[in-house]
Amino acid sequence: MSFNDPRILDLTAFDRHDDDHRARKGASDLHMLRLALDLQLDAMLLTLGAVAHAESRGADDGDGDAVPWRRWLMEDLELARTLAVALVVGEAAPAHGIGGGFPGPGREKSLDNLVARYTSMEKLLAGVLERPPHGEPWRATVQEAQARCRGRLAELHEHRKEIIAAAAARTEFLPGELLG
Questions:
Q1: Nearest CA among 99, 86, 98, 106 for reference residue 31
Q2: Of 88, 113, 116, 138, whose CB neighbour count within 10 A is largest?
Q3: What is the number of domains present in the chain?
Q4: Are residues 6 and 77 in the same domain?
Q5: Both 89 and 146 in a single domain?
Q6: Which of 36, 63, 98 is the last residue in one of the domains?
Q7: Which of 71, 98, 125 is the C-terminal boundary of a domain?
Q8: Cut 0.70: pTM above it
Q9: Mean pLDDT, to the nearest integer, of 122-129?
Q10: What's the pLDDT at 24?
């Protein structure tokens, strides 16, 4: 039976048995950790929204009466990282985009995924900035975000070049093999 409805959570993968017909060790625990990570990521996004709202109204985190949104955001990020590490160590897929470890092709795939996202983000920001300015107060922020995207892309491309060069150095080619 197959479910195509995204609102239905398929838990059958956690009920499968291995070759010895035993349930995978800790699969239900890892599933619970995955759910906790999903909730933590949602909470982090809500906190991020609250930080943005507070900053747009001029609220100060240093004020004794203000809610410490920025500190909570940093703590949320640390908790999400901790849960993701626990899932990677447990060899479970944490969440879409967090993916497996970094040995071998994992690091290269992670870099490729980041390049794709930052390239898309840079194009979206460029599209916003292409429109004629009408005195919008957010344009400077968008320009800064675009510059950060471009900077991150430059760094990502450098790391990808290093990985490609290292892989090429490990590969032994026969004479003329690369000529086709």
A1: 86
A2: 88
A3: 2
A4: yes
A5: no
A6: 98
A7: 98
A8: no
A9: 93
A10: 56
Tokens representing 37 are 């990570």
Average pLDDT of the chain, as a whole number: 78
Residue span of the structural domain in which 34 resides: 1-98
Q: Provide the residue type at 119 as one letter.
A: T
Same domain assignment for residues 16 and 47: yes
Going by pLDDT thresholds of 50, 70 and 90, the confidence category of residue 99 is low
How many CB atoms sit inside 10 A of residue 124's CB?
A: 14
Tell me, letter by letter, the H, E, C secondary structure of the chain.
Answer: CCCCCCCCCCCHHHCCECCCCCECCCHHHHHHHHHHHHHHHHHHHHHHHHHHHHHHCCCCCCCCCCCCHHHHHHHHHHHHHHHHHHHHHCCCCCCCCCCCCCCCHHHHHHHHHHHHHHHHHHHHHHHHHHCCCCCCCCHHHHHHHHHHHHHHHHHHHHHHHHHHHHHHHHCCCCCCHHHC
- Residues 114, 169 within the same domain: yes
Tell me the mean pLDDT in the region 96-119: 72
**pLDDT tens, position by position, 66-83:** 789 899 999 999 999 888
pLDDT at 2: 46
- 41, two tokens: 């990521």
